[in-house]
Amino acid sequence: MSTAKSDSINSLCEGKRGVDLLNNPRLNKGTAFTAEERDGLGLRGLLPPKYIMIEEQLEIVSENYGYKKTDLDKFIYLIGLLDRNETLFYRLLVENLEELMPIVYTPTVGLACQKYSRIFRRPRGLCISLRDRGRVDELLSNWPYQDIRITVVTDGERILGLGDLGLNGMGIPVGKLNLYVAAAGIDPSKTLPVCLDVGTNNEELREDPLYLGLNQPRERGPAYDELVDEFIQTVRTRWPYCTIQFEDFGNKNAFRLLEKYRDTVPVLNDDIQGTGAVTLAGLLGALRITKQSLADQRIVFLGAGEAGIGIAEAIMTGLCEEGLTEEEAKQRFWHVDSKGLVTHARPGELEPHKLLFARNEPPVGTLGGVVENVHPTILLGVSGQPGLFNQMVVRTMSRHVERPIIFALSNPTSKAECTAEQAYSWSDGQAIFASGSPFDPVTINGRFFRPGQGNNAYIFPGVGLGVIMSGAKRITNSMFHQAAKALAKAVPDSLLKEVSVYPRQSDIKKVSVDIAVAVAREVYSLGLNGEPEPDDLEAHIQDWTWKPEYTPYV
Known about the structure:
The chain is an alpha/beta fold. The protein contains 26 helices and 14 strands. It has helices at 3-13, 18-22, 35-40, 54-66, 71-84, 86-95, 97-104, 108-114, 116-119, 136-141, 171-184, 203-206, 222-238, 251-261, 270-290, 306-321, 326-330, 352-355, 367-374, 391-400, 420-426, 460-470, 477-489, 493-496, 508-526, 537-544; strands spanning 126-129, 150-154, 191-197, 243-246, 267-269, 299-302, 333-337, 340-341, 378-381, 405-408, 432-435, 442-444, 447-449, 452-453.
């Protein structure tokens, strides 16, 4: 246990006694307060007399968790535990990450966001609305912790594949930061979830009398930019070492805001850069199975928004590393959106983010037509539209490719372009499949397949940790490229034999440290912090990380 953590906890504890201590989830240890602590902190009589260590508390909360029947009930139970005893929550999450990640994050967090206004219990994060313009610093000062190193901020416009959820999107920053803590060991007191409430165009929410957000159409004018800029600049002034992660913004604002701030502020967009890196890592794993190079591939993308463009940029970086020029790399890509193939010949003006990868060839109106013409080796789905990788598409692809690589990456599970079983069955067991949300293992004709989950949680915690530990003044795409390579390297041969291209989620903590080291080394090599690299970078990072252990108070 680090001295820094001990000092921080005891500083927070100073002056708090009795019920105030028990009601503070950061400080509360429940029945794990020792006899000496109970006497010294005015807790005697407020707790049952028996002293129970954290290991026994874990048995109790695990048993109670097991009584919950639905995923939403499990989510509510875990958030309730977080509201009571932060250390115990994170200990449970760390020790059961593979089982609990689908509950605290995708896919269950999507349902929790849809129900956010009805399951809200206690504040977790800051809600900053249009009404707060000019007062953002005052709101940030209300947050109880004042050494923030990473904040995740959303405006709720594009939550997973669910669309505009307005203030209800707050569940996403909370869930992301839970994983920063559990997977990368970032002290929870150094994290801040934020939702910028600028209204919503979801009429169902606006008509709901119990919706907790602003009941007005989504702001898209100067007032929006002023609020975002005030937030960014105030964070940088108050917490100069803070990394800012944009999360689940709509396409237009996501690309625009990343480009606006990336050269001057340590900002990242996980939907663009994180998705690109985790997908590239999965593809590198798949190519270990097929024994091919990235440059040999023909890649069709279903979806040309944040994820699709982010993945293409990540793959392009990998192709350039193999010796291709950017123009040569682009010739390996075909993007398909709701209107068909993205091409310069399409009537009307293309959105700016699509221009980079638009092709100079005649329009093709359907995904099936593109697959028939291109004979892709890789098919990537980031459309948010379920079932579009249908039997005809998969069989057409399989006729021309011995080992088709099919990634159905849309979240949550209900939005996946196809299921794992469909991909394996329709390809006669030849597909290398991965998804954005989890699928159970599948057995086809006696062969066992363990579908890989291209979860961004493999990437963003390690990237954030590496950026924080290196003091990077800005975040580059090359850092995400190093993260992708570190993740791909972490997949053991035993999983590749099961046609799984990602590590087990139970290994995320180790993977996150590996990624943090790779990212930090890239920061030092680029000179983005003005300091020399520590002699033992991995030990330096490990020593800083927070562990969910109780601190003695007296």
